[in-house]
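Quick review question:
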């Protein structure tokens, strides 16, 4: 079985695959000062509770947190006796990166593009709402054409509360209406309906610039916060919370197939 690990700035997401069959997933908080043993013991505990501790024989890792990349490489070596496949821009993922500097493209952007193109062949835009709100633009020829990066919803909410003296933290949820009649609803409107407008506006612009704009284009939503936006817009065609982990599985399958053919 395959253990897929996605290390993001807010969460470390883990998923287990048996071939193409999804088994289970976990989401841990990203804590950069946790030791190899702390993460290792947590991982083993999760696997044992799922009765999967002895079933894992492959691992693949995507990380945008350099400090934790080596930590998890060591976790897998010490606690699973496995060396993970590390996703980078140099890996043969089946997706061509057409940005000015492919080395700048995060592993999560690559894996999302791989998953989108594999699951929904053709042009697409992937909206990933996590620590940042990102838009990955994928061509019908299997190319990652570029990316848009905006502050994430929670980051925006935290900035408001920490930098504006008369504003405090509020629950990130939709208010009863867009016109806020008190401070809490005013902030919630700006966050939820403001980010809905951001998503809709950027999708419109990206569609207009997309080289495949004449073809049917899928708009795919993912990430831990995407559910806050989807009830308020109809521009998102598909919601897949575990898209990045699917991309990791697809990349791993491709690499193993290539090794087998060689």
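Suggested answer, residue by residue:
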């Amino acid at each position: 079985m395959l253990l897929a690990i996605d290390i993001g700035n807010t969460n470390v997401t883990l998923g287990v695959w048996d071939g193409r069959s999804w088994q289970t997933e976990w989401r841990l908080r990203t804590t950069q000062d946790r030791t190899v043993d702390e993460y290792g013991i947590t991982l083993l505990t999760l696997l044992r509770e799922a009765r999967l501790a002895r079933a894992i024989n492959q691992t693949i890792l995507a990380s945008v947190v350099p400090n934790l990349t080596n930590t998890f490489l060591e976790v897998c070596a010490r606690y699973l006796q496995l060396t993970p496949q590390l996703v980078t821009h140099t890996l043969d993922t089946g997706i061509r990166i057409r940005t000015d500097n492919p080395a700048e493209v995060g592993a999560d952007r690559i894996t999302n593009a791989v998953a989108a193109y594999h699951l929904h062949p053709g042009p697409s835009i992937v909206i990933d709402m996590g620590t940042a709100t990102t838009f990955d633009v994928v061509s019908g020829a299997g190319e990652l054409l570029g990316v848009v990066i905006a502050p994430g919803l929670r980051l925006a909410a935290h900035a408001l509360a920490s930098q504006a003296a008369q504003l405090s933290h509020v629950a990130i949820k939709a208010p009863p209406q867009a016109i806020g009649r008190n401070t809490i609803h005013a902030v919630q409107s700006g966050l939820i309906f403001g980010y809905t407008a951001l998503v809709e506006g950027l999708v419109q612009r990206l569609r207009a610039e997309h080289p495949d704009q004449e073809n049917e284009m899928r708009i795919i939503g993912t990430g831990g916060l995407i559910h806050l936006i989807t009830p308020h817009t109809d521009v998102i065609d598909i919601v897949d919370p575990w898209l990045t982990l699917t991309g990791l599985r697809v990349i791993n399958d491709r690499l193993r197939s290539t090794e087998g053919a060689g």
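Why it works: The chain has two domains: 2-86, 96-247. The mean pLDDT is 93.
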